[in-house]
């Protein structure tokens, strides 16, 4: 699983992994959460971004419907309102995937691990236009802030790898301000701190499974970044990792996958300079401790 605070490079990392011949990379944010997620974090993070919960009583049919997976379902159910309508074609329907999902689970225990495995496998079996290599060995999902549920993910999949990408809060907030209804600087900074603290904690608890990487390193030396990451993931380095793509096709810009359109060091520096002096001072003061832990105290 890939994880990131909002505007921290999660979509960018996912798009760079997209063309790798050994990976099944989810076409959008996989958003596996369900509306049954209810805990002390629910008021802070949308349920769709969380690791799902399922009722004690239920059926595989109902479980499938509980998985939110908004971007996929909107694209295949109502493509005319999807932000991906002009740039993607999956060649399948939601019904196609659900039928495969139910077949994969036939005769299996109703566990969250089995449900999540069927969710990812059925997506790629239903996706008729996907370019296959026959060398794929792993599935890659991405959901913002899902690092907060790392312990749940690893309880279901003990061998899973969770890559959490971080970005300095100055550029991240400047990027967030481009959204139609952005968070206030107070809300964004507090949430950024919480997400990164979870990441730091879980990286310490599960050093073989949870890795923190930096967006700045990705854009400053992309080849070196992915050479190192490939070793952590136990996959071969591929030149396809040096550029963003969708279904193997190189993207000139990443829109509509997130607000980071062109992931370069120059664009990163320009974005960071868009903050006002007061915004920069507030973020610096409020995120001082986490900045030091992530190497951003020099910014």
CATH superfamily of the largest domain: P-loop containing nucleotide triphosphate hydrolases
CATH topology assignment of the largest domain: Rossmann fold
Mean pLDDT: 96
List the total number of helices.
13
CATH structural architecture of the largest domain: 3-Layer(aba) Sandwich
Q: How far is it from the N-terminal to the C-terminal residue, by CA? A: 29 Å
| Total number of strands | 7
Broad shape: globular
Structural class: mainly alpha
Name the quaternary structure.
single chain
Query: Which percent range fits the helix content?
Result: 40-55%
Question: Could you say how many structural domains there are in total?
Answer: 2
Proportion in β-strands: 5-15%
Uncertain residue ranges: none
CA radius of gyration is: 19 Å
Strand order across the largest sheet:
1-4-5
């Amino acid at each position: 699983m890939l994880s990131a605070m909002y505007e921290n490079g999660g979509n960018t990392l996912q798009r760079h992994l997209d063309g790798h011949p050994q990976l099944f990379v989810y076409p959008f944010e996989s958003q596996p959460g369900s509306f049954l997620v209810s805990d002390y974090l629910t008021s802070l993070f949308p349920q769709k971004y969380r690791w799902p919960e399922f009722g004690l009583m239920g059926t595989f049919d109902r479980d499938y419907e509980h998985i939110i997976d908004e971007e996929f379902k909107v694209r295949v159910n109502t493509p005319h309102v999807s932000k991906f309508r002009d740039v993607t074609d999956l060649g399948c329907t939601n019904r196609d995937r659900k039928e495969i999902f139910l077949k994969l689970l036939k005769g299996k225990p109703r566990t969250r691990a089995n449900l999540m495995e069927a969710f990812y496998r059925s997506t790629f079996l239903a996706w008729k236009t996907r370019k296959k290599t026959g060398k794929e060995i792993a599935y890659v999902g991405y959901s913002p802030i899902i690092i907060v549920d790392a312990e749940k993910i690893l309880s279901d999949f003990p061998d899973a790898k969770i890559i959490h990408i971080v970005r300095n809060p100055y550029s991240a907030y400047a990027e967030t301000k481009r959204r139609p209804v952005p968070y206030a600087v107070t809300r964004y900074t507090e949430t950024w701190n919480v997400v990164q603290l979870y990441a730091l904690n879980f990286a310490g608890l599960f050093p073989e499974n949870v890795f923190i990487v930096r967006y700045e390193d990705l854009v400053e030396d992309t080849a070196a970044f992915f050479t190192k990451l490939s070793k952590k993931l136990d996959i071969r380095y591929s030149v396809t990792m040096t550029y963003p793509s969708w279904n193997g096709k190189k993207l000139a810009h990443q829109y509509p996958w997130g607000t980071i359109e062109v992931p370069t060091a120059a664009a990163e520096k320009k974005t960071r300079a868009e903050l006002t002096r007061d915004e920069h001072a507030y973020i610096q003061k409020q995120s001082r401790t986490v900045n030091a832990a992530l190497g951003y105290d020099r910014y």
